[in-house]
Amino acid sequence: MENMLFWLIFFTPGWTFIVGSTVEQDFMWHLRKIPRIVSERTFHLTSPTFEADAKMLVNRVCGIECQKELPAPSLPELEDSLSYETVFENGTRTLTRVKVQDLVLEPAQNTTTKGAPVRRKRQVYGTDSRFSILDKRFLTNFPFSTAVKLSTGCSGILISPKHVLTAAHCVHDGKDYIKGSKKLRVGLLKMRNKGGGKKRRGSKRSRREANGGGLREGTKENPWERSGRGRRVADGRPSFRWTRVKSTHIPKGWARGGSADAVLDYDYALLELKRAHNKRYMELGISPAIKKMPGGMIHFSGFDNDRADQLVYRFCSVSDESSDLLYQYCDAESGSTGSGVYLRLKEPDKKNWKRKIIAVYSGHQWVDVHGVEKDYNVAVRITPLKYAQICLWVHGNDASCAYG
Fold first, then answer.
1. pLDDT tens profile 93-138
2. Burial of 106 (0-12, 13-18, 19+ CB in 10 A)
3. What is the pLDDT, as a whole number, of residue 65?
4. How far is it, in rounded angstroms, from Cα 47 to Cα 344?
5. What pLDDT does 253 receive?
6. Which of 192, 211, 342, 395 is deepest in the core (most CB within 10 A)?
7. Which residues of the chain carry a pLDDT beneath 50?
């Protein structure tokens, strides 16, 4: 079983065989010119209350067949949606207006318009095809080491030495920031040493290390040291080193407040960590069409709530796509939302293959398809505009964001 898992994880993502008329050369990362997003002006906003419940307020999802009939958003509409809020560790908040340059407008293929029924709780379809990554050889190495856990219960992925990409609804419900996001933390995987080398129980040093150095003498035990079901994680099992979040960026397309509904297309957010990590991170990529994905497959790893603090990996084929969303049936449970969806494609003019993040897993949604409500697990694609915006958040300017 272990050898089979190794084969599935490390060889399946890099298929190079011929699929129909599509040959290996098509499964490549192609650099393309990225539109420029330039910060125009920043305003101070009132501090949020951090009182929202941890749930999405996306109530309307347009059917796949209606997406092709919708008019393309105007440039001012795009600039409004790509403007962004930043909330800082001390609770202060700003709004930054942006300008989009060098953009060629294309017909839009999705937006949010039609009502949908109540969401299901389960997001596993048929036979559960998820893999729990328990072997230290896999867990502490790339690409699995790029997965992180948020203190609000979601997942995320490392995209720079100090930045984590996740879903916007993991910190904001579309109207306000959720409870617990004011003191947001990110948990990076580590392995406990089994047996020898234990510190004396109750010592200040051992208690500080259990909390990543953040637990002071005389305080209560770190609640995040426990698993998602309340059990203490046993020696030899994975645990987390928790790091504070310095600031959070959310596109205005999602953070609408009381003015309008949040738009699923913008369910992504960037977290800046207070201190840098020393792990290898995964780069961003532009989401290609399904036919440009090896086997039409996508991959992601996250911390599904039904498996305690285990890292859970899955891959599946994409069922349908729009300009901003990928519709698929990858088995996933709550807790995995915010995971980075990635592909493994060949680099141009090179023999090696490279993984890049091409979407953020958003969760379960009902979609109207030819008048019938169908449920999917949905991921938000990284389009050229979103790539430019996230790149701006990471670097502070657009100088490093000309190509992606």
1. 999 999 998 876 554 444 333 333 333 444 555 566 777 777 777 8
2. exposed
3. 56
4. 41
5. 92
6. 342
7. 1-25, 107-122, 195-236
388 HSE (CA, 13 A, CB side): 25
Backbone angles phi, psi at 19, to 5 degrees: -120, 105
Q: Residue 43, Cβ neighbours under 10 Å: how many?
A: 10
Beta partners for 94?
44, 86
The H or E element containing residue 395 is helix 384-395
CA dist 132 and 238 (Å) reads 12
- Residue-wise pLDDT for 367-376, tens only, equals 777 677 777 8
Q: Which residue has the tokens 């953070």?
A: 255
Which parts of 211-352 are beta strand (E)? 238-251, 269-273, 283-284, 297-302, 311-321, 325-328, 340-346
DSSP 207-248: HHHHTTT-PPTTSPP-GGGB-TTSPBPPTTSEEEEEEEEEEE
The three-class DSSP label of residue 50 is coil
Q: For residue 56, give both structure tokens.
A: 């999405």
pLDDT at 237 (0 to 100): 59
Per-position DSSP letters for 71-89, written without gaps between them: PPPPHHHHHHHH-EEEEET
